[in-house]
Task: structure prediction
Amino acid sequence: MNAMVIDRADRIWAAIADVPDPEIPAITLLDLGVVRDVRVTSDGAGEILITPTYTGCPATIAIHAMVRTALDDAGLGDVQIRSILSPPWTTDWISDEGRAKLRAYGIAPPERGDGRGSLKEEGPAVCPQCNSSNTVEISRFGSTPCKALWKCQDCSEPFDRFKCI
Ligand SMILES: [Zn+2]
Result:
């Protein structure tokens, strides 16, 4: 790879670094792990490979639109956005920084290693307020289909849990 190609890839990564998750603006798309790769094509343009989170999640459309806007704003209008469906996104791709941001935002992050392919049952959620595991699921669907609503039995706070997939 020559320096120009590396420089261009860096510019693309930088342009999308701060794009937030449309559903949880406290974390970025990079935290979420949906941006799989940035490639600079032989014609000098480039493409971004994005794996959608939950199938049918309306956020997918918003994610593409927000990445498009960020690229256009950075003068990278010729960069293509391509969806990659395989392998499917898993909550295991959420970065440690992303998990910490979710917790700070009041959402119990998915446990690493509990994602797709794990044979483990999901354990109790850890309360983002008081760290108690004395929690119960109230509803399989929280504020969005991607989250479940839980309640802490120690501090009585309800909270969203990011579902593991
Ligand atoms: Zn609690």
